[in-house]
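ok trying again, last paste got cut off:
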Amino acid sequence: MRLVCLDLEGVLVPEIWIAFAEATGVDEFRRTTRDEPDYDKLMRFRIDLLKQHEFILADIQRVIGTLEPLEGAVGFINALREKTQLVILSDTYQEFAQPLMAKLGYPTLLCNRLIAGHDGRITGYKLRQKDGKKAAVRAFKSLNLEIFAAGDSFNDLTMIREADAGCLFRAPPAIREACKDILCVDMYDELLAEITVFLEP
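nice, full thing came through this time. structure:
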């Protein structure tokens, strides 16, 4: 059996933190895993910034509620799920993802959790496990599943390289340049074509 594992933000939905930066006018929130390969460093930066500007979880959730899937994403998912099973592997948080999952037709999602106080102030985060995307792909492979993986950021590279096949999707120039050994596509029909080849007997 063959399975597809996809990143979420930047692949199927907008980058949540970029949307939050645009909504709040705080440009520092635009920094994402496309820019910073050290996830813990990035999250500590974000949490400090939230504290500095006195934003709480509800402020971020309010912005997320306004987001829609990227153009073509829902059609792509529907076409993909006619061919095989899909699992979303993301470094986002359960507290962020639910409204977006509803708009994507509730695909299976493996992600992380935020730590927030009763006042809604985010004080930390809890990873599902370290390098969770790669670990999930490895676990699926231990079940004798063949995996295709795709994503757009530094934190997707180990997942893609662990998979039986995969590619980058709409990756920024710095990642394309650093990972010339990994194919990068920019359109959903191109991604679906790569997956279709993978699924062929």
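cool. The mean pLDDT is 96. The radius of gyration is 17 Å.
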